[in-house]
Amino acid sequence: MNDFAFHPEDKARSLIDRRLVASGWLIQSKAEMNLGAGLGVALREFQTSSGPVDYGLFVGRKLCGVIEAKPEGTTLSGYSEQAARYIADVPKHLVREEGQVRFEYVASGAETLFRDHADPDPVSRRVFAFHRPETLERELREPLTLRGRLRVMPPFITDGLRACQIDAVSALEGSMAQNRPRALVQMATGAGKTFTACTLSYRLLAHAGFKRILFLADRANLVRQTRDEYLAYRPPGTGRSFSEIYNVQKLGAAGLDKDAQIVIATIQRVYSVLTGKELSEEEEEASSFELSRADTERLVSYNPSIPIESFDLVITDECHRSIYGTWRQVLEYFDAFTVGLTATPSLHTLGFFGKNLVAQYPYERSVVDGVNVGFEVFRIRTEIGERGATVKAGYDLPVRDKRTRAERYETLEADFSYAPDQIDRSVLVPNQIRTVLETYRDSLFTELFPGRSEVPKTLIFAKDDHHAEEITTLVREVFGKGNDFAKKITYKTDGADPESLIRSFRNDYNPRIAVTVDMIATGTDVKPLEVLIFMRDVRSELYFEQMKGRGARTISAEKLREVTPDAEAKTRFVLIDAVGVSESLKTVSQPLERDRVISFDRLIDDIAAGRRDDDAFATLAARLAALDRRIGDKDRAAIVKASGGVDLSGLASRLLDAVDPDALAKRVPKDAPEPEQKKAREAAKDAAATIFDDPTLRRLLKDVKASADIRIDTISTDAVVSSGWDEKKATDTVERFKRFLEERRDELAALQILYRLPYAQRRLTYEAVDDLKEALKRPPWLLEPVDIWRAYKRLASDKVRGNPAGTLADIVMLVRYAIASSESLEPLPSVIAGRFNLWLGREEKAGRSYSEEQRAWLRAIRDHLGVNIEIRPEDMMDAPEFAGRGGIVRARALFGARLPALLDELSDVLVA
What we know:
Shape: flat
Strand content: 5-15%
Largest sheet: 7 strands, mixed
Radius of gyration: 34 Å
Number of helices: 37
Helix content: 40-55%
Structural class: alpha/beta
């Protein structure tokens, strides 16, 4: 008998029975009742005083909950009160203690709602399956539920935490205490997202009774990095490392370690373990930005070895990928709170987390706080990079087989033209790469890092592994250096461990330049990085922000000099844009190719074997269409012959038509019954896939894909069209600073004085300028004096002399320049030096001469004013430059009663 023969509620009970059994429950009728047969028994048609409930749940012979079953398709939330009534009306003689009967399920064949009546403000939540009896037994033993414990968390020790980390942990705990299932934290790259997660994890394990936490990282190398951070983390107040208190597991193919409290994995590894599908190392190493983003049909089913209650919390770092398609199913499988960590939240991400953005710490704020450094854009435009090129017929060009890298020569029978977007994909232009690298080399110590002689740590982003190989070779040639100077760091690095190369790039003098595709694009920390060179465009806004984040990390001057000896300090990084990446439109839209994690060979074999989901068809169509744009006439003719007259474009069209709703509407009316529409969809897919039954065609397509040739243009020469700093960012910074001054001139004491407003106090004070600095740092301005200074230098280098000193005096000079009180911008100590000499000359003319010791004191006062704006008598007791000379006592002995007036006079003459 098939399912359609049952009454809808009978069908729902049949499905619920199977799901209960999978979760470890025994199903019994009243006539067959044996509560000692197992830990958990679900008793059908359990009688209450208000009628029978579909199931009564017994754990360890104790009645503890009920299940109300409804037909598939029923909206369940309205039946929660009915289930609650059954709980209230259970036979009193079965209730041994108050609150014993507390677990409420309302379920259909496809959906389950769960509510624990012992929770504070109990509310139903959707769960993927039923909890195991062991879980309910454990919950019954606890005096408070997990959500109850979240409301009585102790204050936490904030030693060693940044303010943004304290805010994030506090907000996340508050959100969970309010029973918000999902929460999102925006935290700039480098602000310590993992450290925040470690702190939160420890508190939840130690104080809220969480049993296990899952941390999802973007790629396998970031899993290893996160594991190391958890192992090294020392919870404040414990005196021990995290690993001495709790077990940390890196999830592998062997599955879940039952003794682990922290499990770290990629989301595709968790999916693999849940479904039993194999996962290659290459698939786990790929960045999420390069993988699937589309919705797919439900592919995750219940796995008894990993029940839904395996984790109490899932933390997903850079959560952009985990909320899409198949990966979203992994998050929704577990009955756990979900916390998202991201530097760049999209609207889609905010939507998934119910707009519950509990803490924000944007990049701009992190720069102002000194957590990250800012950046400047240096744009390089070349003739070929901007317009492409044409090689005339008759030339011999090398042609490289991308699979074997073997080269042959081909004589052009017609002119060969290519556009900029074909460069480094279907045609390689060594002279274009060389021109960009030579421009970088020649600008390094003049425009980019004047006064330096060591090549700063530089990361170059390439389009693919072949492109990275070519760039690496040319870097060594252009700089005249050996192999150690420049390294390719990709997943296909031969003869070296990519992880050890990353460590060397981070910690050693060599390599100075690394070339990558996406292995160091997200998450990986290389703090000494001072230059990013983009030789590939990036269409994803989120990915671009992540890639820029590689250069933003701060590092102490001492640590920086360990790998770059002539560097003074890392105050910014330089983004060199050789392809227009800083100008191109970015998107977060869904690509046609929906499943980039799967290889071409496996995908085509899967479809031949019967795979019929829409994503597979759309993905193969996209890849066939892309392949058609790269192959030559010889391969194209071979495919047409093997397929019986269908070219690659035709194959792609057939696949797309099979999943196109408009094409389907031509075969069957849109108002046709669902079974008829489903049959038509399946027939269309079968018809489109039939052509791939032929193993000869499949083999040919795989060979053509693997051996797609790339021409190498060794003929065209390239030249720089322009190179220089991008003024847009500098202009924006200056305009923001000017708006700030106009809006706040009447409010801040320092601005009142500098604008010479009539009601202002007479002299600048340290406190007034410090208030001004803090106001600049606050939203919406988020301005740092060093960035304003640098912006003015980019826009009017002839009027800006010297570099900022990093003191409060810089702000005074910036304001004076902005409001045209000064014609040039230069550090206050430089200005004071001249004013001080003039003052000394006037003193001598007035008959006041000073001894050498007095002059030394006056120079110390001058230098103090150059940094601190003002000087007070008490400074002569505290400041080291005065205390070492005898302090205020010696100053009074040298200058007598004139000292206070002298200090006022110098402040007016030198600073005013």
